[in-house]
Each structure stands twice: as C-alpha cells, then as structure tokens.
Amino acid sequence: DCDCIEAVVSELIIDEVSDLSVSFEEISVCANQAFSLTPEIIGGVPPFDFLWDTGESSDTLKASLAASTQYSLSVTDFCGNTSVAIADVNIQNIPTATLMGVYDLCETAETGIPVQLEGNPPWTIEHSIDGAEQVPIENIHINPFYLNTPKEGIYELTAFNDAYCEGRVMG
Q1: What single string gives the DSSP state of each residue in 83-146?
Q2: Would you say 112 and 140 are in contact if contact means Cβ atoms under 8 Å apart?
C-alpha cells in the first residue's frame, strides 16, 4: 500500500451525435457577377470534407454565371457520414436605387429624401454630399428608404448593392 497516491475518479460522457444535414438558402445572383455559395451544416462531426460537382473541395464555392443553374455538394464528416445538397442559383435583374428630384427640406425635417430600391433586401447604399463620400448605409430593409439630410447640399448616390448583386444608381 502506498498512501501517497490519491484515487482519481473520472466520468466520461459520450453524447449522441445528430445526423449530418446540409442545405442552402435560396440564392439569386446577377449575370456575370461574382458570388459565393456556402452551405449550412447541421450535425455531424467536424472536420468536414467538401466535394462540389465542379471538382472544388473548399467549404465555399466562388463563381459567376450567365444563366440559372444548380450546384451539387457532397459533405462527409469525420465519422464517414455523408450528406448531399443541391443549390438552385437563379439569375435576377440588376437592382437599381433611384434618388430623384429636388427637395427643399428644413434642418429639422424627419423624412429625408426618398430612395426607391429594387432587388432583394438587405440593401446597402453609398452616397456623397457635395462630392464628399459619406459612411455607407447598410442592412436596409425598408422601401422606399429615406436618406437622412443633415445639411444643405447636393446628394448623390454613388454605389448600391442588394442582398446578392452590385446594382445601378440613378440620381
């Protein structure tokens, strides 16, 4: 007997692993514009191996398209379980943000200048006041959007994106 060693008790808990499931959100892109396609993975045991029908083996597919298409992805987890998902990628029209008209607004006006937005939210607008770029306005979900007018000047839209595409600006 040795009194110098204490008995140590350990408890090992093995959790049940949920089934591997792979899916994609619906995606629309503009023709000939770059996009990324990333799957949603639920369950399984990391690390995961990826195999796209294009031969790519990364977790994200980067591409551009001229026409709507489907991509197939096979994901295999550490335990050898495999799940396959199909991504439908649709072509949408190039979105437009339109700022039109001349407005006389008081400094205390709460409405701002209306910007009509096309495409899929969330939108991002970049604009300038008298040629000076302003901080981009991101995550817009309301249409029309009312552009804040903190001072007198010439307001111009300089860039616009919807959820999937670089768009066009007017005004």
Answers
A1: EEEEEEEEEEPPPEEE--S-----TT-SS-EEEEE-SSSSEEEEEEETTEE---EEEE--SSEE
A2: no
Please provide residue 148's backbone torsions phi and psi, each rounded to the nearest 5 degrees. Answer: -60, 140
The two structure tokens encoding residue 9: 């008790």
Question: pLDDT tens digits for 5-40?
Answer: 676 787 877 777 789 999 999 889 999 999 999 999
Q: How far apart are CA 164 and CA 90, in angstroms?
A: 11
Tokens of 168: 């066009």
**In 3D, which of 136, 98, 96, 99 has the Cα closest to residue 120?**
96
- The predicted pLDDT at position 73 comes to 98
Which residue type, as a one-letter code, is found at position 152? E
Q: Is the peptide bond before 144 cis (omega within 30 degrees of 0)?
A: yes
